[in-house]
Design a protein that fits this description.
Structural class: alpha/beta
Radius of gyration: 18 Å
Oligomer: single chain
Order of helices and strands: EHEHEEHEHEHEHEEHHHHEHEH
CATH class: Alpha Beta
Number of helices: 12
Helix content: 40-55%
Distance between the termini: 18 Å
CATH topology: TIM Barrel
CATH superfamily: Luciferase-like domain
Strand content: 15-25%
Number of domains: 1
């Protein structure tokens, strides 16, 4: 399976035609976000020919591992070598069932292994932020797919899981040279994540303070997590994750209000 160095992360699960555009531009992987089911991912595989399609991520509270393994096997039968199962524990704010995240993830891996058609270790990847979840991701999967992080976290993840596992962070970006406009868009996007304990705890571990988290996020935090600027400036921020040890970066351009088409082309021109 080839992820390529640069991919795209999208929550537009109802637009499988996006796979055709990104495939033609040369991106390595399309990550279908927003906790998709495998049925929602299939149209993206059917509309592309070359690129890998990944779930970013399938929420383990919402899908039984045996069912996922069966659907995974069907996708791999129909589209060999092009599907990566990304799984994650989600957030305590999202489900009343949330408890013992590390144990739950370990048991979910056990379920994928025990299924009649198991999901192989190198055909799955786990969302992980903290050290123990990173350890589990490296032990039981291809590696880790962190979200809403900085290059400092990418460096930590690489050091924690060693040279052989994959580190594939998501990076949201704003292609906008006007800093005030870019930060306004970034804060609108960040508002959801700054209410989620998994993300805020992780940011506090990496040098940010409670003051940085308050009032929509400080400029320092917003600029570090959601880089903005010209395509060239954004490309430099993406490459900072690669320099910190990422194998693959999936970029999420934040909408200008008229769709992402121009952003995808601009990113392809400077990153591929």
């Amino acid at each position: 399976m080839n992820l390529g160095t640069i991919g795209i992360w999208t929550r537009e699960r109802d637009k499988p035609e996006l796979a055709e555009q990104l495939d033609a531009l040369g991106f390595g992987t399309l990550w279908v976000g927003g906790s998709p089911s495998l049925a929602q991912v299939r149209p993206f595989l059917e509309r592309s020919r070359r690129m890998t399609i990944a779930t970013g991520i399938l929420n383990v509270w919402q899908h039984a591992p045996a069912d996922v393994a069966a659907e995974d096997a069907a996708l791999r039968r129909d589209h060999p070598g092009r599907f990566l199962l990304g799984i994650g524990i989600g957030h305590p704010e999202a489900t009343q069932r949330y408890a013992k995240p590390l144990t739950t993830m370990r048991e979910y891996f056990d379920g994928l292994d025990a299924a009649p058609q198991p999901v192989a270790r190198d055909e799955r990847i786990a969302a992980a932020l903290g050290p123990k979840m990173l350890d589990l991701a490296a032990e039981r999967s291809l590696g880790t797919h962190p979200y809403f992080t900085t290059p400092e976290h990418t460096r930590f993840a690489r050091e924690r899981i060693g040279p052989d596992a994959i580190v594939a962070p998501e990076v949201a970006v704003v292609l906008e040279a006007d800093a005030a406009k870019a930060r306004e868009r970034a804060r609108s996007y960040a508002a959801t994540y700054l209410r989620l304990r998994n993300y805020t705890s992780n940011l506090l571990r990496f040098g940010f303070s409670e003051d940085d988290l308050a009032d929509g996020g400080s400029d320092r935090l917003i600029d570090a997590v959601i880089p903005h600027g010209t395509p060239e400036q954004v490309a430099a921020a993406v490459r900072a994750h690669l320099d910190a040890g990422a194998d693959h970066v999936c970029v999420q351009p934040l909408s200008r209000g008229g769709g992402h088409g121009e952003d995808y082309a601009a990113l392809a021109a400077v990153l591929l």
